[in-house]
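Before the break, one more example. Copy the sequence into your notebook; we will annotate it together after we see the structure.
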Amino acid sequence: METLFLLASTESGALREAMAKIREIPHVAEVEPVTGMFDLLVKIEAPGVREGLDIVMNRIRKISGIRQTETLISLGGISRSAGYASRVTPASSRRGGPSARGSTKGTSPPP
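Here is what the structure looks like once it is written out:
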């Protein structure tokens, strides 16, 4: 199972109807209204990336009132199977990340 996240902008007044139509689509796990440049965050759990992209291109993007989309493919499954999980450092633990702010204990100054 692959996970894709879709950010979607809607036409003015089309948010509720677009959400309702998206929720009816098989493999759509979650639909949430959000703030920012986009209006909706959609989580798609499909058998594969191609199937997920097909849902985006041939189902969601064709809904009346959907103006713009951006698709993000989760690397969760790929990173675990390829061994990336042990090499990927969460942003919060990188130098200067949220957990490092306000604390200089055990860190050296940036180059």
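The domain at 2-73 is CATH 3.30.70.920 (Alpha-Beta Plaits). Strands lie at 2-10, 28-33, 40-46, 66-73. Try to locate both features in your own notes.
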